[in-house]
Amino acid sequence: MEIRTFLGADADDSVLARFHALFEADGRRTFPGFPAQPFPGYAANMRASRHYDLGPRRVWAAWEDGELLGYGTVVYPDRHMLETAIPRVIVDEAHRRRGIGTALLREIAADARAEGRATLAYEQVRIGTDGEHWARAVGFANTQLRRWQMLHVADVDPALWEVPVPAGYRLVRWTDAAPDDLVAAFAQARNAIADAPHGDSSLLEPEWTVERIRQSEADIRAAGESARFVVAVCERSGAVAAVTGMLLEPGRVDLCWQRDTAAVADHRGLGLGRVVKAAMMRWLTVDIPGLGRVVTNTAADNASMNRVNEQVGYTHYADIGLFEASVEQIGAALGTAAAVPAPRTEPALGGITRPRTSAAPSGPR
Ligand SMILES: CC(C)(COP(=O)(O)OP(=O)(O)OC[C@H]1O[C@@H](n2cnc3c(N)ncnc32)[C@H](O)[C@@H]1OP(=O)(O)O)[C@@H](O)C(=O)NCCC(=O)NCCS
Protein backbone atom coordinates (compact mmCIF):
# COMPACT_ATOMS: atom_id res chain seq x y z
CA MET A 1 0.00 0.00 0.00
CA GLU A 2 1.32 3.39 -0.96
CA ILE A 3 0.07 6.87 -0.14
CA ARG A 4 0.57 9.62 -2.65
CA THR A 5 -0.63 13.17 -3.05
CA PHE A 6 -3.44 13.48 -5.56
CA LEU A 7 -4.06 16.47 -7.81
CA GLY A 8 -7.69 16.54 -8.85
CA ALA A 9 -7.11 19.31 -11.37
CA ASP A 10 -5.07 16.92 -13.51
CA ALA A 11 -7.33 13.92 -13.18
CA ASP A 12 -9.46 12.56 -15.98
CA ASP A 13 -13.00 11.35 -15.45
CA SER A 14 -12.08 7.66 -15.29
CA VAL A 15 -9.78 8.27 -12.31
CA LEU A 16 -12.22 10.55 -10.55
CA ALA A 17 -14.93 7.94 -11.11
CA ARG A 18 -12.95 5.60 -8.83
CA PHE A 19 -12.87 8.22 -6.09
CA HIS A 20 -16.58 8.85 -6.61
CA ALA A 21 -17.39 5.13 -6.41
CA LEU A 22 -15.58 4.88 -3.07
CA PHE A 23 -17.30 8.01 -1.79
CA GLU A 24 -20.71 6.80 -2.94
CA ALA A 25 -20.27 3.34 -1.41
CA ASP A 26 -19.34 4.88 1.92
CA GLY A 27 -22.33 7.21 1.66
CA ARG A 28 -24.68 4.25 1.15
CA ARG A 29 -23.23 2.56 4.22
CA THR A 30 -22.74 5.52 6.55
CA PHE A 31 -25.63 7.72 5.38
CA PRO A 32 -28.33 5.35 4.07
CA GLY A 33 -31.23 7.14 2.42
CA PHE A 34 -29.11 10.23 1.83
CA PRO A 35 -28.93 11.08 -1.88
CA ALA A 36 -25.34 10.71 -3.09
CA GLN A 37 -23.72 13.65 -4.81
CA PRO A 38 -23.86 12.91 -8.56
CA PHE A 39 -20.57 12.52 -10.39
CA PRO A 40 -20.44 15.90 -12.20
CA GLY A 41 -20.66 17.94 -8.99
CA TYR A 42 -18.30 15.61 -7.16
CA ALA A 43 -15.74 15.75 -9.98
CA ALA A 44 -15.98 19.54 -10.14
CA ASN A 45 -15.27 19.72 -6.40
CA MET A 46 -12.31 17.36 -6.66
CA ARG A 47 -10.87 19.33 -9.59
CA ALA A 48 -11.20 22.64 -7.77
CA SER A 49 -8.23 23.52 -5.63
CA ARG A 50 -10.50 25.14 -3.00
CA HIS A 51 -13.41 24.07 -0.90
CA TYR A 52 -16.01 26.52 -2.18
CA ASP A 53 -16.29 28.81 0.83
CA LEU A 54 -13.47 27.77 3.14
CA GLY A 55 -10.08 27.60 1.49
CA PRO A 56 -7.52 25.43 -0.33
CA ARG A 57 -7.91 21.68 -0.28
CA ARG A 58 -5.23 18.96 -0.57
CA VAL A 59 -5.80 15.28 -1.23
CA TRP A 60 -3.87 12.06 -0.57
CA ALA A 61 -4.82 8.67 -1.92
CA ALA A 62 -3.92 5.14 -0.82
CA TRP A 63 -3.17 2.77 -3.72
CA GLU A 64 -2.35 -0.92 -3.95
CA ASP A 65 -1.69 -2.64 -7.26
CA GLY A 66 -3.49 0.20 -9.04
CA GLU A 67 -6.55 -0.11 -6.79
CA LEU A 68 -7.78 2.91 -4.85
CA LEU A 69 -8.16 1.84 -1.20
CA GLY A 70 -9.00 5.16 0.38
CA TYR A 71 -8.36 8.86 0.34
CA GLY A 72 -8.01 11.76 2.70
CA THR A 73 -8.59 15.46 2.17
CA VAL A 74 -7.72 18.48 4.22
CA VAL A 75 -9.11 21.98 3.83
CA TYR A 76 -7.25 24.99 5.16
CA PRO A 77 -9.72 27.77 5.85
CA ASP A 78 -8.17 31.02 4.67
CA ARG A 79 -10.90 33.55 5.38
CA HIS A 80 -11.37 32.71 9.05
CA MET A 81 -10.49 29.81 11.40
CA LEU A 82 -6.86 30.30 10.38
CA GLU A 83 -5.65 27.97 13.13
CA THR A 84 -7.82 25.08 11.98
CA ALA A 85 -7.45 22.33 9.37
CA ILE A 86 -10.53 20.33 8.34
CA PRO A 87 -9.68 16.73 7.37
CA ARG A 88 -11.82 13.97 5.95
CA VAL A 89 -10.75 10.35 5.48
CA ILE A 90 -12.58 7.54 3.68
CA VAL A 91 -11.36 3.97 3.37
CA ASP A 92 -12.96 1.31 1.19
CA GLU A 93 -15.03 -0.95 3.40
CA ALA A 94 -13.17 -4.04 2.19
CA HIS A 95 -9.86 -2.59 3.37
CA ARG A 96 -10.75 -1.19 6.78
CA ARG A 97 -8.78 -2.03 9.95
CA ARG A 98 -5.51 -2.26 8.01
CA GLY A 99 -4.20 1.07 9.26
CA ILE A 100 -4.98 2.89 5.99
CA GLY A 101 -7.16 5.58 7.59
CA THR A 102 -4.45 6.21 10.14
CA ALA A 103 -1.75 6.35 7.46
CA LEU A 104 -3.77 8.95 5.53
CA LEU A 105 -4.27 10.95 8.72
CA ARG A 106 -0.51 10.85 9.33
CA GLU A 107 0.04 12.64 5.99
CA ILE A 108 -2.68 15.15 6.78
CA ALA A 109 -1.33 15.86 10.26
CA ALA A 110 2.21 16.40 8.93
CA ASP A 111 0.89 18.74 6.26
CA ALA A 112 -1.30 20.65 8.74
CA ARG A 113 1.71 21.05 11.00
CA ALA A 114 3.79 22.38 8.10
CA GLU A 115 0.93 24.82 7.38
CA GLY A 116 1.13 26.11 10.94
CA ARG A 117 -2.34 24.87 11.88
CA ALA A 118 -3.04 24.07 15.53
CA THR A 119 -6.25 22.04 15.37
CA LEU A 120 -7.67 19.26 13.24
CA ALA A 121 -11.47 19.43 13.20
CA TYR A 122 -13.69 16.77 11.59
CA GLU A 123 -17.09 18.20 10.96
CA GLN A 124 -19.31 15.32 9.92
CA VAL A 125 -18.72 12.07 11.73
CA ARG A 126 -21.88 10.06 12.09
CA ILE A 127 -22.26 8.91 15.68
CA GLY A 128 -22.12 5.14 16.12
CA THR A 129 -20.27 4.45 12.84
CA ASP A 130 -16.71 3.32 12.06
CA GLY A 131 -15.84 7.01 11.74
CA GLU A 132 -16.62 7.72 15.38
CA HIS A 133 -14.81 4.62 16.67
CA TRP A 134 -11.77 5.45 14.61
CA ALA A 135 -11.74 9.15 15.50
CA ARG A 136 -11.77 8.33 19.21
CA ALA A 137 -9.13 5.61 18.79
CA VAL A 138 -6.69 7.92 17.02
CA GLY A 139 -7.04 10.66 19.61
CA PHE A 140 -9.92 12.94 18.62
CA ALA A 141 -12.41 14.22 21.20
CA ASN A 142 -16.04 15.02 20.55
CA THR A 143 -16.54 18.78 20.79
CA GLN A 144 -20.16 19.08 19.75
CA LEU A 145 -23.19 16.99 18.88
CA ARG A 146 -25.26 18.11 15.95
CA ARG A 147 -28.42 16.87 14.33
CA TRP A 148 -29.13 16.58 10.64
CA GLN A 149 -32.83 16.86 9.91
CA MET A 150 -34.30 16.05 6.53
CA LEU A 151 -37.42 17.35 4.84
CA HIS A 152 -38.93 15.01 2.22
CA VAL A 153 -40.82 17.48 0.05
CA ALA A 154 -43.32 14.95 -1.31
CA ASP A 155 -44.29 13.84 2.21
CA VAL A 156 -44.94 17.26 3.69
CA ASP A 157 -48.28 19.04 3.59
CA PRO A 158 -47.53 22.45 1.99
CA ALA A 159 -50.03 23.95 4.45
CA LEU A 160 -47.14 23.83 6.96
CA TRP A 161 -45.48 26.55 4.91
CA GLU A 162 -48.42 28.94 5.03
CA VAL A 163 -47.08 30.92 7.94
CA PRO A 164 -48.21 34.57 8.19
CA VAL A 165 -45.61 37.33 8.47
CA PRO A 166 -46.04 39.24 11.78
CA ALA A 167 -47.22 42.85 11.49
CA GLY A 168 -44.31 45.29 11.11
CA TYR A 169 -42.15 42.92 9.05
CA ARG A 170 -41.83 42.19 5.34
CA LEU A 171 -40.04 39.40 3.50
CA VAL A 172 -37.29 39.96 0.94
CA ARG A 173 -35.62 37.20 -1.05
CA TRP A 174 -32.79 36.91 -3.56
CA THR A 175 -30.61 34.50 -5.44
CA ASP A 176 -26.81 34.75 -5.23
CA ALA A 177 -26.25 38.48 -4.50
CA ALA A 178 -27.86 40.42 -1.64
CA PRO A 179 -29.44 43.72 -2.80
CA ASP A 180 -27.09 46.67 -2.27
CA ASP A 181 -29.59 48.50 -0.07
CA LEU A 182 -29.89 45.53 2.29
CA VAL A 183 -26.43 44.01 2.35
CA ALA A 184 -25.17 45.90 5.43
CA ALA A 185 -28.26 44.97 7.46
CA PHE A 186 -27.97 41.41 6.15
CA ALA A 187 -24.33 41.17 7.30
CA GLN A 188 -25.33 42.39 10.75
CA ALA A 189 -28.14 39.85 10.99
CA ARG A 190 -25.95 36.94 9.96
CA ASN A 191 -23.83 37.57 13.01
CA ALA A 192 -26.80 36.36 15.07
CA ILE A 193 -25.79 32.84 14.01
CA ALA A 194 -22.88 33.18 16.44
CA ASP A 195 -25.47 33.00 19.25
CA ALA A 196 -26.27 29.39 18.34
CA PRO A 197 -24.79 26.83 20.76
CA HIS A 198 -21.41 25.58 19.56
CA GLY A 199 -20.28 23.33 22.41
CA ASP A 200 -16.50 23.14 22.63
CA SER A 201 -16.05 23.32 18.89
CA SER A 202 -13.53 25.67 17.32
CA LEU A 203 -15.49 25.57 14.06
CA LEU A 204 -17.03 29.00 14.25
CA GLU A 205 -18.91 31.33 11.95
CA PRO A 206 -16.90 34.26 10.64
CA GLU A 207 -17.71 37.76 11.69
CA TRP A 208 -19.89 38.93 8.83
CA THR A 209 -19.21 42.25 7.14
CA VAL A 210 -20.39 43.57 3.79
CA GLU A 211 -17.01 42.68 2.32
CA ARG A 212 -17.21 39.14 3.66
CA ILE A 213 -20.74 38.70 2.32
CA ARG A 214 -19.60 39.78 -1.15
CA GLN A 215 -16.57 37.48 -0.90
CA SER A 216 -18.75 34.54 0.09
CA GLU A 217 -21.13 35.24 -2.80
CA ALA A 218 -18.17 35.32 -5.19
CA ASP A 219 -16.81 32.05 -3.75
CA ILE A 220 -20.15 30.31 -4.23
CA ARG A 221 -20.46 31.60 -7.80
CA ALA A 222 -16.88 30.57 -8.59
CA ALA A 223 -17.65 27.05 -7.35
CA GLY A 224 -20.63 26.89 -9.73
CA GLU A 225 -23.11 26.68 -6.86
CA SER A 226 -26.04 28.90 -6.11
CA ALA A 227 -27.35 30.38 -2.87
CA ARG A 228 -30.79 31.73 -2.07
CA PHE A 229 -31.79 33.78 0.93
CA VAL A 230 -35.06 34.82 2.51
CA VAL A 231 -34.94 37.53 5.17
CA ALA A 232 -37.51 39.29 7.32
CA VAL A 233 -36.99 43.06 7.41
CA CYS A 234 -38.27 45.18 10.31
CA GLU A 235 -40.29 47.99 8.64
CA ARG A 236 -39.68 50.44 11.46
CA SER A 237 -35.88 50.19 11.72
CA GLY A 238 -34.93 48.67 8.37
CA ALA A 239 -32.97 45.99 10.28
CA VAL A 240 -32.84 42.45 8.98
CA ALA A 241 -34.53 40.53 11.79
CA ALA A 242 -34.28 36.94 10.57
CA VAL A 243 -32.37 35.10 7.87
CA THR A 244 -32.36 31.72 6.18
CA GLY A 245 -30.27 30.47 3.29
CA MET A 246 -30.25 27.54 0.91
CA LEU A 247 -27.30 26.17 -1.04
CA LEU A 248 -28.11 24.56 -4.37
CA GLU A 249 -26.03 22.67 -6.87
CA PRO A 250 -27.35 23.76 -10.27
CA GLY A 251 -29.15 20.98 -12.09
CA ARG A 252 -29.52 18.94 -8.93
CA VAL A 253 -33.09 18.62 -7.67
CA ASP A 254 -32.79 15.62 -5.37
CA LEU A 255 -31.18 17.53 -2.51
CA CYS A 256 -30.29 20.97 -1.26
CA TRP A 257 -28.85 22.26 2.00
CA GLN A 258 -30.51 24.77 4.25
CA ARG A 259 -28.04 26.93 6.11
CA ASP A 260 -27.54 30.10 8.05
CA THR A 261 -30.90 30.41 9.77
CA ALA A 262 -31.06 32.90 12.61
CA ALA A 263 -33.36 35.43 14.23
CA VAL A 264 -31.69 38.51 15.67
CA ALA A 265 -32.00 38.82 19.50
CA ASP A 266 -34.23 41.96 19.46
CA HIS A 267 -36.71 40.19 17.19
CA ARG A 268 -36.96 36.77 18.85
CA GLY A 269 -40.20 35.30 20.18
CA LEU A 270 -42.21 36.29 17.09
CA GLY A 271 -41.75 33.06 15.15
CA LEU A 272 -39.62 34.75 12.49
CA GLY A 273 -37.32 31.74 12.10
CA ARG A 274 -40.32 29.65 11.10
CA VAL A 275 -41.64 32.47 8.88
CA VAL A 276 -38.45 32.67 6.79
CA LYS A 277 -38.01 28.88 6.59
CA ALA A 278 -41.63 28.43 5.50
CA ALA A 279 -41.26 31.19 2.89
CA MET A 280 -38.10 29.51 1.59
CA MET A 281 -40.00 26.23 1.12
CA ARG A 282 -42.85 28.01 -0.72
CA TRP A 283 -40.31 29.65 -3.04
CA LEU A 284 -38.26 26.53 -3.69
CA THR A 285 -41.17 24.21 -4.34
CA VAL A 286 -42.65 26.61 -6.90
CA ASP A 287 -39.29 27.29 -8.55
CA ILE A 288 -37.79 23.80 -8.54
CA PRO A 289 -40.30 21.19 -9.69
CA GLY A 290 -39.41 17.76 -8.40
CA LEU A 291 -37.30 19.04 -5.51
CA GLY A 292 -36.63 15.93 -3.41
CA ARG A 293 -35.18 16.71 0.00
CA VAL A 294 -33.77 19.51 2.03
CA VAL A 295 -31.26 18.89 4.80
CA THR A 296 -30.48 21.12 7.72
CA ASN A 297 -27.70 20.89 10.30
CA THR A 298 -28.38 22.19 13.82
CA ALA A 299 -26.73 21.86 17.22
CA ALA A 300 -28.43 18.97 19.04
CA ASP A 301 -29.03 21.22 22.05
CA ASN A 302 -30.56 24.04 20.01
CA ALA A 303 -34.09 23.07 21.03
CA SER A 304 -35.83 26.09 19.53
CA MET A 305 -34.30 25.67 16.07
CA ASN A 306 -34.91 21.92 16.07
CA ARG A 307 -38.56 22.60 16.93
CA VAL A 308 -38.89 25.19 14.16
CA ASN A 309 -37.50 22.62 11.75
CA GLU A 310 -40.12 20.07 12.83
CA GLN A 311 -42.85 22.68 12.41
CA VAL A 312 -41.96 23.11 8.73
CA GLY A 313 -41.75 19.36 8.09
CA TYR A 314 -38.21 18.23 8.90
CA THR A 315 -37.70 14.90 10.64
CA HIS A 316 -34.63 13.61 12.43
CA TYR A 317 -32.09 12.04 10.08
CA ALA A 318 -28.76 11.56 11.87
CA ASP A 319 -26.71 12.42 14.93
CA ILE A 320 -23.42 13.92 13.86
CA GLY A 321 -20.34 14.65 15.92
CA LEU A 322 -17.72 17.31 15.52
CA PHE A 323 -14.39 15.81 16.57
CA GLU A 324 -11.23 17.75 17.20
CA ALA A 325 -7.62 17.15 18.17
CA SER A 326 -4.48 19.20 18.45
CA VAL A 327 -2.15 18.81 15.46
CA GLU A 328 0.81 18.41 17.84
CA GLN A 329 -0.87 15.64 19.82
CA ILE A 330 -2.00 13.73 16.77
CA GLY A 331 1.42 14.24 15.21
CA ALA A 332 3.15 12.91 18.30
CA ALA A 333 0.78 9.93 18.54
CA LEU A 334 1.20 9.03 14.87
CA GLY A 335 4.90 9.81 14.63
CA THR A 336 4.77 12.92 12.44
CA ALA A 337 5.84 15.50 14.99
CA ALA A 338 9.57 15.11 14.56
CA ALA A 339 9.95 16.80 11.21
CA VAL A 340 8.18 18.56 8.41
CA PRO A 341 7.87 15.98 5.62
CA ALA A 342 10.69 16.14 3.11
CA PRO A 343 9.95 16.79 -0.57
CA ARG A 344 9.17 13.54 -2.34
CA THR A 345 8.83 12.39 -5.89
CA GLU A 346 5.70 10.38 -6.49
CA PRO A 347 5.60 7.53 -8.96
CA ALA A 348 3.42 8.66 -11.84
CA LEU A 349 0.00 7.05 -12.10
CA GLY A 350 -1.65 7.91 -15.35
CA GLY A 351 -0.61 11.52 -14.98
CA ILE A 352 -2.68 12.04 -11.87
CA THR A 353 0.06 12.63 -9.37
CA ARG A 354 2.81 15.18 -9.38
CA PRO A 355 5.99 15.51 -7.34
CA ARG A 356 5.58 17.60 -4.27
CA THR A 357 8.45 19.90 -4.97
CA SER A 358 8.54 21.73 -1.67
CA ALA A 359 7.19 21.49 1.80
CA ALA A 360 3.93 23.36 2.14
CA PRO A 361 4.31 27.04 2.98
CA SER A 362 4.08 27.58 6.69
CA GLY A 363 1.45 29.76 8.26
CA PRO A 364 -2.04 30.61 7.13
CA ARG A 365 -2.54 31.63 3.52
C1 LIG B 1 -12.94 5.98 9.72
C2 LIG B 1 -12.16 5.20 8.66
C3 LIG B 1 -11.48 6.22 7.75
C4 LIG B 1 -11.09 4.35 9.38
O1 LIG B 1 -10.26 3.75 8.41
P1 LIG B 1 -9.43 2.42 8.72
O2 LIG B 1 -8.39 2.31 7.67
O3 LIG B 1 -10.35 1.27 8.88
O4 LIG B 1 -8.78 2.77 10.15
P2 LIG B 1 -7.49 2.11 10.80
O5 LIG B 1 -7.25 0.74 10.30
O6 LIG B 1 -6.38 3.09 10.64
O7 LIG B 1 -7.95 2.07 12.33
C5 LIG B 1 -7.09 2.46 13.39
C6 LIG B 1 -7.75 2.10 14.71
O8 LIG B 1 -9.00 2.81 14.85
C7 LIG B 1 -9.91 1.98 15.57
N1 LIG B 1 -11.05 1.62 14.73
C8 LIG B 1 -11.19 1.82 13.40
N2 LIG B 1 -12.40 1.38 13.00
C9 LIG B 1 -13.03 0.90 14.09
C10 LIG B 1 -14.30 0.32 14.32
N3 LIG B 1 -15.18 0.14 13.32
N4 LIG B 1 -14.62 -0.06 15.58
C11 LIG B 1 -13.75 0.10 16.60
N5 LIG B 1 -12.51 0.65 16.44
C12 LIG B 1 -12.17 1.06 15.21
C13 LIG B 1 -9.14 0.74 15.98
O9 LIG B 1 -8.54 1.01 17.23
C14 LIG B 1 -8.11 0.65 14.88
O10 LIG B 1 -6.98 -0.09 15.26
P3 LIG B 1 -7.06 -1.72 15.21
O11 LIG B 1 -7.66 -2.11 13.91
O12 LIG B 1 -5.61 -2.12 15.35
O13 LIG B 1 -7.91 -2.13 16.37
C15 LIG B 1 -13.10 4.26 7.87
O14 LIG B 1 -13.83 3.46 8.76
C16 LIG B 1 -14.08 5.01 7.01
O15 LIG B 1 -13.78 5.31 5.86
N6 LIG B 1 -15.28 5.36 7.54
C17 LIG B 1 -16.25 6.14 6.80
C18 LIG B 1 -15.84 7.60 6.66
C19 LIG B 1 -15.63 8.26 8.00
O16 LIG B 1 -16.47 8.19 8.89
N7 LIG B 1 -14.49 8.96 8.14
C20 LIG B 1 -14.07 9.58 9.38
C21 LIG B 1 -14.41 10.98 9.51
S1 LIG B 1 -14.12 12.01 8.14
UniProtKB/TrEMBL annotation:
It comes from the Bacteria. CDD domains: NAT_SF (cd04301). Residues 355-365 have a biased composition (Polar residues). Residues 345-365 are annotated as: Disordered. It holds the Pfam family Acetyltransf_1. One of its GO terms (molecular function) is acyltransferase activity, transferring groups other than amino-acyl groups. This is GNAT family N-acetyltransferase. It comes from Actinospica acidithermotolerans.
